[in-house]
Amino acid sequence: MTVITTIEDLRVLAEKRVPRMFYDYADSGSWTEGTYRANSADFQKIKLRQRVAVNMENRSTATRMIGVDTKMPVALAPVGSVGMHHADGEIHVARAAEKFGIPFTLSTMSICSIEDVAEHTKAPFWFQLYVMRDRQFVERLIDRAKAARCSALVLTLDLQILGQRHKDLKNGLSVPPKPTLRNWINLATKPNWCLGMLGTKRRQFGNIVGHVKGVADMSSLTEWTSQQFDPRLNWGDVEWIKKRWGGKLILKGIQDVEDARLAVASGADALIVSNHGGRQLDGAQSSIEALPAIVGAVGSQIEVHMDGGIRSGQDVLKAWALGARGTYIGRAFLYGLGALGEAGVTKALEIIHKELDLTMAFCGHTDIHMVDQRILLPGTFPVA
Prior knowledge:
The protein is α/β, with parallel strands linked by helices. The chain is 43% helix and 10% strand. The chain is built from 16 helices and 10 strands. The strands form 2 sheets. The protein has an 8-stranded parallel sheet. The chain is globular.
């Protein structure tokens, strides 16, 4: 039996167990995948300062993200089609996050619906919103999130148009998989996945099917979604959504200082420095490289979070040291889910927490709130 000690171990196992089109959907970026790779590689360039002869007892990684107590400065990012990596995937992921004590964010493009997740969890979760051309549908989504007691709305700003991901096109990505010979051959090598999918009714986008007039099956769903992402999205829409929602608002997809200042002006509670996991604009800065300038410009006015490339607790600590007051993991928990289901998500969180805790101690601290840039070796990290 394989001993799981790293996120990479979970990735290798997930690759064996998840159908190719869904594994590739998660484990890829747009065009050359340069930004996707840089998100992780740029973390490795940042070096830590080891300190010794420091009392390392009574350590705490606990903090708060937009007023929510969290065991560590990590939330689970919104990821589409999680329920295609493991049957009822979003429910399992939300449960694991709740038990571990960190926030979970449900994507608009989830397989399990808002109501599904609310029914199977107790802790309020966050909901991620895509702005569609059908504004009445957007209003209904917001109202459904309110009814489900979601405690924050994460508004994604960087998906007005879709970046091209070559693997998805070559695989003929669809939810559920199209019955092609190539797909049937691949599915035949994933018996546990197939059994799981046979045992659930949740195999399409649960927040959309049955909630949009004329969308009742796969063909009508595909046609609807291809036309719905709204290229007209602007800061006026952010104002409208904030007013309609009325609760905590997080803006996801900020990479530029000018946009960060506009995010502050919008009245949002937090922003996420993010390039959509390298899945949109290839050639953009890595998130960790973009982070310091944004923290320097607006960090005293708004809570700054970041995502992109985090595969370890050391990455979390480096982002915190550079001013992020929250981080998000997407692929890391998805590997865990694909590998071992809900237990795999828990394992991913345990790995990241242990690495964060031990690295913080090796750097001479027992409380994450005392950690700043002084734990980093000068000259190895991006400067604002």
